[in-house]
Amino acid sequence: MKSLNRAISLCTYLPKNSRVISTSSVHNNTEDGWLKKLLVRRIEPTKESHSRMLSDKEIIYALHTHNIRPDSVDKYLKNYKNSVDFVHSRKPELGCELVGSWTVSVGDMDQALHLWRYVGGFEKIDKAKILFRENPDYAALEKERGNFVRSRHLQYLLAFSFWPNGEPREPNNIYEIRSYSLKPGTMIEWGNNWARGLTYRRAQNEAFAGYFSQIGRLYNVHHIWCYKNLQARRETRESTWRNPGWDECVAYTVPLIREMHCRILEPTEFSPTQ
Description:
Elements: H1 2-13, H2 30-39, H3 50-54, E1 59-68, H4 73-89, H5 91-94, E2 96-106, E3 111-119, H6 121-134, H7 136-145, E4 149-159, E5 174-182, H8 187-197, E6 207-215, E7 220-227, H9 230-240, H10 246-253, E8 257-267
Antiparallel strand pairs: 1-3, 1-4, 2-3, 2-8, 4-6, 5-7, 5-8, 6-7
Helix pairs in contact: 4-7, 8-10
Protein name: NIPSNAP domain-containing protein
Pfam families: NIPSNAP
Domain NIPSNAP: 61-162, 175-272
């Protein structure tokens, strides 16, 4: 009982919204075990995977990041447009479609990002990879593209169920992709906090889509936002801080982050979302 009184006294004098971490040693007696549960935030065991709890696993997103040779940007974009046309001409067979295609205007320059949606899970991706490999026209486009890029990276992602679905926007917009590297084991906590936090970011309809990685760099999260311009971005973000509760979302999610960066994106002419 003395331990309980000490815990209640401690919590009384803590500042509002403080995150409490237990520093006491582990004991086997019942009282200390109960006290530990009181002070430590725990993630309960579950028989479901975290990805199943956060997303629909039958829809997979492929995020292609290409670093382009500075002298070959126009040739690269023409080549990729031809690739998009090829894929969309075989859409019923491939089961995939382009969600968005962008070039980076602030951040990693001479870089392009292409986001594809596969309906049917990894089974569809496996079949598409075989078709791409065996089709001579697509293989020729891939070979030509190799002359225009310095490096490439591919991630397979799942969409957070509480984010918008990345539906096409009318022209003219800029996009911001904010990428986070999280501490392992924190994805559920991240999702829980952002499910609440996103309610404070709806006034200007700036939320486009949110994803987390399945294959590639793990514990990666990508939030994509849509704005009319950089000034609108600034005004929208500043107004968000005036919403009670947004500061709590930030306070609880920042400690989960190992690394983060943002890039400002401009849609390509063949991007479905503008």
